[in-house]
């Protein structure tokens, strides 16, 4: 039986969870500055949505390649140390951008720094997911994910607004500098977080060696669980359809509708509020309606929202539709992540998480490049209509798979 050192009670009374929550909320707030500032920096330097899509695609490739070994690192190395190292490297990378821009703008530098930052972000995300069950009991995982998502989103609401204002006043590099500072603070805060051991006796935590076979171990576990298998396959297509959406919104609002950087920040900040709403409703919704209804319904809602973005020139309506999209992504994402954490043994969780993200993200870079190129050549309305309808079709396919199960955490893993 798995033993936990953590006692029951309010999550907010737990010192380690609360500290983890505080520093990561700050880090996400900083991330939201770069989330706005880097596309604006590229747009100012090139005026091209295709270049924005290319940068997003390169970051996606780096994420996928890193995913081959990120899970193995999370299962072998002390997870707290790994989180700290990732924050330190990201702080150094993003600090380099404003330093270089003080002397001369170098757009090419973004094509080196952003993929490297994405690689460390992938390792961090995998380790973060693997570490959360070391902070809370299994029955609190969905609640913990929801609360973290809510506070992350709250930080992300103010971040884009401030990033837009800061970019308008001092340039996008000032906003990126803020992100570097928050990574530094996060690294310091994580030094004081303690993770509990969550594994049964006799279960190896750190297997020997490091190779591509670690990815195979994770993929094999995903394949043997009927719902995780279906989720991975459908998200393969959904990531293709959605990864480049932020670039398209920034281009549409900032370039085609000729709105200011501040307005772009307001739109993305409003959209982030969708995650806050999702975090408040996801735990009771999953208990009441079940996993399948929440996940499938969320992506159906996403499809409607995506299709509508390019059909209007009203900035408030675009913001509302973007919020709806983010809400759907939030509900589906929290459900999916919680399910993986609930059914995966601790010693495999890093590799399973890494394999899940690596496989379902494989088409993401191609999708970002294709959709942004489509927006440039055929217009935003046609592009978002296609992506939205395709997203709806994927949701319909989900009703024909084991994803429709209300309580998939009770399903047994299929024998090899």
Distance between termini?
A: 23 Å
CATH superfamily of the largest domain: MFS general substrate transporter like domains
The percent of residues in helical segments reads: over 70%
> Looking at the structure, what is the overall shape?
globular
Order of helices and strands: HHHHHHHHHHHHHHH
β-strand number: 0
Helix-strand category: mainly alpha
Low-confidence spans: 1-8, 200-208
Q: What name does CATH use for the topology of the largest domain?
A: Growth Hormone, Chain: A
Whole-angstrom Rg: 20 Å
Instruction: Please state the second-level CATH architecture of the largest domain.
Output: Up-down Bundle
Count of separate DSSP helical elements: 15
Q: Please report the first level of CATH classification, the CATH class of the largest domain.
A: Mainly Alpha
Mean pLDDT: 81
Q: How can the largest sheet be summarized?
A: none
> Can you tell me the number of structural domains?
2
Strand content: under 5%
List the helices and strands and how they pair.
Elements: H1 15-46, H2 49-76, H3 79-101, H4 107-131, H5 141-170, H6 172-190, H7 213-224, H8 226-242, H9 245-256, H10 261-289, H11 291-309, H12 315-343, H13 346-360, H14 364-378, H15 380-398
Helix pairs in contact: 1-5, 1-6, 1-9, 2-4, 2-13, 2-14, 3-4, 3-6, 4-13, 5-6, 5-10, 5-12, 7-13, 8-13, 8-14, 8-15, 9-10, 10-11, 10-12, 11-12, 11-15, 14-15
